[in-house]
Amino acid sequence: MRRVTLIALMLVLGAPVARAATPAEVLCASYKNAIAKQTDRAKREAMIRSLPRGCEVAAPARAPEPARVQQPARVQQPARVQQPAPVQEPAHVQQPAPAPEPAPEPSPPPTTLLPNGMTIEQVRANGNKAHEARKYADAMRWYHMAADKGDPAAETAIGDLYFNGHGVPVDYGQAMSWYSRAAAKGSATSDEAIGSLYERGQGVGQSDAEAIKWFRRAAAKGNADAMNWLGFLYAHGQGVPKDPAQAQNWFARARSAHPSQ
């Protein structure tokens, strides 16, 4: 250690030694010697930055970096062979549509339930009982419950209440409206009722031709009242040529027929 210190002192003061080195100069020379021996550039620069004041030294010149070995030129990859474009189908060729799946079999309609779990038939029967007892307001209420579910017999019964003025004022327009709803569902009774309104001109313009059309429609379904009407019209020649034989034929058919709803 003493030898290192002496060498450092000679580097600072030079020979011959004219005076004794101060402790600061000895320490500074020791730092510089250590810096000179440091081969790691980053550590050497860090040591230079940490020298005490008055002992600064210039950073040693950087050793020239070795010339970079030139890398051989990259071999150029051969160009990719372009894949042929997919053949597009002609626009006019229409793909066949998939066959539709068969529709499921419709399930039978459930029994329509009304207040207190009653069926349409039970509600209509209550309306008939009230009608027979001349409790027309109750009858109308029961018939409406069934008619709201689309029951044609109840719709015909409401038409009868308006036609006869039972529990409500006589209203042939309302009667025709309810008869028409039931006739659209196939009610022969309402067919005959509409024919009678046309024959009498009640709520509609009087028309023998319209009346006969509706009477024939009801008679074809077995309605006896419609058959009697046709016998009457043939007997009197109203809307049809007078024909006693046809009249007797329709009267006979009416006697053997049963009214159908």
Q: Any descriptors?
A:
single chain; 261 residues; mainly alpha; 11 helices; 0% strand
Produce the secondary structure layout.
Layout: H1 2-13, H2 23-37, H3 41-49, H4 120-132, H5 136-147, H6 152-164, H7 172-183, H8 188-200, H9 208-219, H10 224-236, H11 244-256
Number of helices: 11
- Estimate the global geometry from the Cα principal axes: rod-shaped
Low-confidence stretches: 1-17, 59-66, 102-112
User: Major sheet: size, sense and barrel closure?
Assistant: none
Radius of gyration based on Cα positions? 60 Å
Secondary-structure class: mainly alpha
- The overall strand count is 0
How helix-rich are the residues, as a percent range? 40-55%
Average pLDDT across residues? 77
Residue fraction in strands: under 5%
Please provide the ordered H/E string of secondary-structure elements: HHHHHHHHHHH
Kindly describe this structure:
By secondary structure, this protein is mostly helical. It is built from eleven helices and no strands. The protein has helices at 2-13, 23-37, 41-49, 120-132, 136-147, 152-164, 172-183, 188-200, 208-219, 224-236, 244-256. α1 (2-13) crosses α2 (23-37). The longest helix has 15 residues, at 23-37. The radius of gyration is 60 Å and the shape is rod-shaped.
